[in-house]
Specification:
single chain; mainly alpha; 6 helices; about 0% strand; membrane
């Protein structure tokens, strides 16, 4: 019965992990929708846009980025370790996080500037903002996830098992 309780707890933790992972990209989508000049032809769509506009966190790029970063940190805490992880600090953490933070910084710059061109009916600066926002958030998530996988692997490592052998549990 105790094993069943532990299994239930693990399932709940997995659901919570998946919820926060989804929240990262839900916030990202809402951020882009609210910060691109999108108009709605449909009354229901306009109602949803007006409803979201009431929440100041969605109309502020910095508010959305803070919410996304909080969700990324929560997700990384729940990241499972990988057994055969060849950890390379530069390629798995430093480069993705630096590139991601640079792109997130650039999204603030593109959001505030006016280039004077338009692509696909949207101002070019807002398209560049959206691209930098999506790619930057994904890179930060990837880099922090790499730290979590490595750290969680090291926490569970047996210091007396030098050969990294697996033993069947009873």
């Amino acid at each position: 019965n105790i094993i069943a309780m532990a299994f239930e707890e693990t399932r709940e933790q997995q659901q919570m992990y998946n919820y926060f992972r989804s929240c990262i990209y839900i916030f990202l989508i809402i951020e882009i929708v609210m910060n691109l000049p999108i108009t709605a032809d449909n009354r229901a769509t306009q109602f949803i846009l007006d409803l979201l506009a009431r929440f100041k966190v969605f109309t502020s790029v910095s508010g959305c980025k803070i919410a996304e970063l909080i969700c990324i940190c929560v997700v990384c805490i729940g990241t499972k370790a990988e057994k055969a992880l060849k950890f390379n600090l530069k390629t798995m953490v430093i480069y993705p996080v630096l590139a991601g933070l640079t792109l997130v910084g650039m999204c603030f710059i593109f959001h505030g500037m006016n280039i004077g061109m338009s692509w696909f009916g949207f101002p070019a600066n807002r398209i560049l903002y959206a691209i930098c926002s999506v790619v930057g958030t994904m890179l930060v998530h990837q880099g922090l996830d790499g730290i979590a996988k490595y750290y969680n692997y090291k926490v569970g490592e047996d210091r007396f098992n030098f050969e990294n052998e697996s033993f069947q549990q009873s």
